[in-house]
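INFO worker-7 received task bundle
INFO bundle size: 2
INFO processing item 0
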Amino acid sequence: TGQAQEVLPQEVLREVLSVYQSKMHGRHIQVACAFGCDRAVWVRRGELIQVFSNVIANSIDAMPRGGMLHLGTEEQIVAGMECVQVVIRDQGIGIDEDLVERVFEPFFSTKGDLGNGIGLWVAKQLIEGHGGRIAVTSTTEAGRSGTTVTILLPVGGSGARLGAA
């Protein structure tokens, strides 16, 4: 995965989106981007690609009949530390309330035989390894269903760490 370097999260998001473009087109998934932050974070680029890829793949799987995928970045101050907040929100089927808290457990999947249950577990390890945080909220409520993944990454060099939530 290489050395940590300064990376613009929205550039990595665009790169990952380009990989999934044909799959999203085939499922009638539209993308709306609101990149309100151009701050760099200090990460291993390959790990950030893996995290965004896991999350976006989950969103695509959750929208078999299409929908909107929202991607955004914004600057946040968390615990006195400058961060880039990345939000990936889909209009998919959602995750049952009693299962949301388990999505980061290894080998836990809401996809039955389609998932191996390590994507979000790996994502959490990688984000926390960069001093960040990742959280998932979701609803299965008719007409409002969907899942939001929020990732916070500290701005600045290695050693910048957000405390536990």
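INFO item 0 finished
INFO processing item 1
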Amino acid sequence: AALRERLGNAVYAEGETNMQTVVAQMLLEGKKTIAVAESCTGGLVTSALVEYPGISEVLLEGCVTYTNEAKMHRLGVKAETLDKYTAVSREVAAEMAEGVAKTSGAAIGVSTTGIAGPGGGTEEKPVGLVYMAVADGNDVHCVKHLFGGTRTENKLRSALTAISMVIDKIKARRNEEI
């Protein structure tokens, strides 16, 4: 109880479970569909979701849109947005999440875009810089993280953060409905 009080919303479950299971159960209980657009995570978010039996009831699709062309053609990300902000930006992450939700018909769209490493970073946009977004038709919540570590660590941290964001979005919507 003391831990729950101190940690507040950071507690997503109790007992033996993980975030993937929690988000899958929340999506299924709320009958909320989801679609995922991934760049730097290369399918890890979708892969984590499909570990849960029965997720096919709510997971409409997951797509890896690694190139700018894929982001534009598959998700509707604007060329102007990519030109002005680059693929690794809050603006592109938001358009990716909105685009995957819209094109799939999902209630929730989630996206990841970033620089996993070990190369590709710059002083302005270093390795480990990742933007993640969740869109639900009402608004888009986007976060920026600068993770440190290996390519694998950056991809895993990004995927888990994106899943955590979906949990937070569902919890927030539930609280608004009360």
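INFO item 1 finished
INFO post-check item 1: The two ends are 23 Å apart (CA to CA).
INFO post-check item 1: The mean pLDDT is 93.
INFO worker-7 idle
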